[in-house]
Specification:
Elements (H helix, E strand, L loop, with lengths): L1 E6 L2 H8 L6 E5 L2 E8 L2 E7 L4 H13 L5 E10 L9 E9 L21 E2 L2 H14 L3 E8 L7 H11 L3 E3 L2 H10 L4 E9 L5 H29 L1
Parallel strand pairs: 1-4, 1-5, 5-10, 6-8, 8-9
Antiparallel strand pairs: 2-3, 3-4, 5-9, 6-7, 6-10
Bound molecules: adenine.
Length: 231
């Protein structure tokens, strides 16, 4: 099985590539993709660059050019739910685009015709993640993740996203990866470790905790790979 592993930023993907041997480098569509073997699994790994467009391109490339049949995303997020603290892990049950707005035509936020507001992550991958978390004694929250092409550092905006979509965390790539995987029928799992609370201190906290939180997410991805390898 070929498993795609994505992040948005180098800090999110380096801790994954670092743990692999005999990594091959490929240049496709203005980006770098790494391939390697992990047990019985063939991996393709890349950071997409930040935002919905770049992440959709990377997810599509992994599936169409590299043959990825499962997609795992590893990275950081801003917390909306006050139960989430810096370093906590959240697995997206479903994802939405908080900045998609054609409400002028009577549609709900996050909706365009022939699309859907929420896209659900693969229940089997979520189940594997819960098993791994229980086995390793790691706290893993499940929740709604809202994506948009904005770094949110504003209480009002965060509150609006939380109330409008019932979202627990926000970031800038998950829902676009979800749209691509859903359309191409590839099971996906979006994991995020909290780097900030999307508030006034978010910029500072993000810079402070990006590396440590990204590493926590990457380590958990390896625990999932171990389970997939066994299956
Ligand atoms: N990723 C991590 N923190 C974020 C924030 N506050 N806004 C958007 N994406 C993020």
């Amino acid at each position: 099985m070929i498993v795609g592993i994505m992040g948005a930023m180098p800090e999110e993907v380096e801790p994954i590539v670092k743990r692999l041997d005999n990594v091959k480098r490929h240049e496709v569509a203005d980006n770098i993709y790494y391939t390697a073997l992990y047990g019985s699994l063939d991996l393709v790994i890349a950071y997409s660059k930040i935002g919905k467009v770049f992440s959709a391109l990377t997810a599509s490339t992994m599936i169409e050019k590299f043959g990825a049949g499962k997609m795992l995303f590893s990275g950081v997020a801003g917390a909306i739910n006050p139960q989430l603290s810096i370093g906590d892990l959240i697995a997206a049950t479903k994802l939405c685009q908080h900045d998609l707005d054609i409400t002028a035509f009577g549609h709900p936020y996050g909706y365009v015709p022939e699309g859907k507001v929420f896209i659900e992550a693969d229940p089997k991958l979520l189940e594997i993640a819960s098993l791994v978390a229980a086995k390793e004694g790691i706290k893993l929250k499940r929740g709604v993740v809202a994506t948009g092409d904005q770094f949110v550092a504003d209480e009002q905006r965060k509150k609006w996203i939380g109330e409008t979509f019932g979202a627990d965390a926000l970031e800038m790539e998950g829902a676009s990866v979800a749209v691509v995987c859903d359309a191409l029928r590839v099971p996906f799992f979006i994991l995020r470790a909290i780097s900030d609370a999307a508030d006034m201190e978010a910029g500072f906290d993000f810079d402070t905790f990006l590396e440590s939180s990204a590493k926590k997410s990457a380590d958990f991805i390896f625990a999932i790979l171990d389970e997939l390898d066994k299956a």
